[in-house]
């Protein structure tokens, strides 16, 4: 990973967390136990603090930043989808932020909520726990169902497992030129994937 100290403040990454080598961490960044940070993610703690609580994940090409003095928080088991942008906000515990969603400054998202893909959450927006947010600007459309929350939690657990898989077995390599005989299956919930 590209890791940078600024003003004497160095990012902190718990040894049980996984941060992809192409991710960038700057300054006042705290990544706690069991977190996953994907390829191309940028976590810029050069104005305010950014904290990823236990077992949260930040996927490919996400950007996390905030204004001076802000504290951006991804709550425990928070799930931040590909390409999302978080700026100076608080994402509640066990909440999903969909792909390419944007959550702006001082927004406070209740626990166990779901923000739809491509939603835009305005500054100072707040919502109760288990809110489903959709649109641009995002609005609460209804409460998250038990089934939806279980779906979210299953996906988050896959990222908790991915953290361990990456720490144990992810290595840079050269590609093969042909598909190998008896190609092993990935250690995910889907073991039925067969190459063409």
UniProtKB/TrEMBL annotation:
Specify the superkingdom: Bacteria
Q: What is any Pfam family matched here?
A: Hexapep
Task: Return the Gene3D superfamilies for the record.
Answer: Hexapeptide repeat proteins
According to the record, the segments passing through the membrane are: none
In terms of InterPro entries, this protein maps to: Hexapep, Transf_Hexapept/Carb_Anhydrase, Trimer_LpxA-like_sf
Classification via PANTHER family: DYNACTIN SUBUNIT P25, GAMMA CARBONIC ANHYDRASE-LIKE 1, MITOCHONDRIAL-RELATED
Q: What is this protein called?
A: Phenylacetic acid degradation protein PaaY
Organism, per UniProt?
Marinomonas arenicola
């Amino acid at each position: 990973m590209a890791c940078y100290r600024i003003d004497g403040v160095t990012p902190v990454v718990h040894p049980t967390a996984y941060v992809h080598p192409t991710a960038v961490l700057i300054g006042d960044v705290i990544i706690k136990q069991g977190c996953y940070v994907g390829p191309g993610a940028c976590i810029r703690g050069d104005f305010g603090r950014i904290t990823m609580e236990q077992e949260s994940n930040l996927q490919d090409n996400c950007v996390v930043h905030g204004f001076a003095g802000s504290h951006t928080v991804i709550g425990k088991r928070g799930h931040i989808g590909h390409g999302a942008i978080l700026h100076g906000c608080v994402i509640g515990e066990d909440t999903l932020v969909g792909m390419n969603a944007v959550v702006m400054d001082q927004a406070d998202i209740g626990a166990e909520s779901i923000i739809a893909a491509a939603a835009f959450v305005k500054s100072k927006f707040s919502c109760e726990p288990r809110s489903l947010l959709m649109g641009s600007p995002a609005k609460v459309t209804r409460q998250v169902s038990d089934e939806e929350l279980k779906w979210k939690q299953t996906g988050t657990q896959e990222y908790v497992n991915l953290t361990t898989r990456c720490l144990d077995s992810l290595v840079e390599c050269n590609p093969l030129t042909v598909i190998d005989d008896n190609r092993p299956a990935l250690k995910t919930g889907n073991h039925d994937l067969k190459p063409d």
